[in-house]
Amino acid sequence: KKAKEITVLCDAEVSLVIFGSSGKMHEYCSPSTTLIGILDKYHKLSGQRLWDAKHENLSNELDRIKKENDSMQIELRHLKGEDITSLHYKELMALEEALENGLASIREKQVDLFDIMKKNEKMLEDENKELNFMLHQQGGMPMESREMENGYHQRVRNYQPQLPFTFRVQPIQPNLQERL
């Protein structure tokens, strides 16, 4: 309150930062100024350095990262197909090449996954054959053989689903409505 009064009555640039005992920070800065501006004026008039070289380097690095982030956001929008009307021919060609490279990479990964799935399928088939052979050697009969002997209807009667299912037929033709 007093800092606001001094700002209004004396037409002064005032900045106040208070740290409470709980660690909470409160601040006030005159409406026409910024805290950085006031700190720069203090530095020039007093000759004391509030910011050392390390802090300036960090500040510069922060500014550089912000600019890089902004440019990456713009590039991401371009990759999504947004704001491409402002791009020049060479930029559009580079964008097209980047998209084609990404698509080729995705297709390559897809082929690799397909090959892995084929290998896994082959391994599982071989393991299944080996287990059926071992079962047959021990005197048992593989599951497929027993089902074939009992027949299709025997399997259907013995089938017990874990969850009950209900179905309702929805006729497509209007004349079927009358029959139901």
Describe the structure.
This protein is mostly helical and 180 residues long. The protein folds into 3 domains: 1-50, SRF-like, CATH 3.40.1810; 51-86; 88-137. The chain has 7 helices and 2 strands, in the order αββαααααα. Strands 1-2 form a two-stranded antiparallel ribbon. It is elongated.
Write the layout of secondary structure elements.
Layout: H1 2-10, E1 15-19, E2 25-29, H2 35-46, H3 53-79, H4 89-137, H5 143-150, H6 152-158, H7 175-179
Antiparallel strand pairs: 1-2
- Judged by helices, strands and strand pairing, the structural class is mainly alpha
Tally the structural domains.
3
**CATH architecture label name of the largest domain:** 3-Layer(aba) Sandwich
Number of strands: 2
The secondary-structure element order is HEEHHHHHH
Amino-to-carboxy terminus distance: 82 Å
- Give the biggest beta sheet: 2 strands, antiparallel
CATH homologous superfamily of the largest domain? Transcription factor, MADS-box
Q: Into which percent range does the helicity of residues fall?
A: 55-70%
How many H/I helices?
Answer: 7
Arithmetic mean of pLDDT: 79
Query: Stretches where pLDDT falls below 50 for ≥5 residues?
Result: none
CATH class of the largest domain: Alpha Beta
Q: What would the CATH topology of the largest domain be?
A: SRF-like
In short:
With 180 residues, the protein is mainly α.
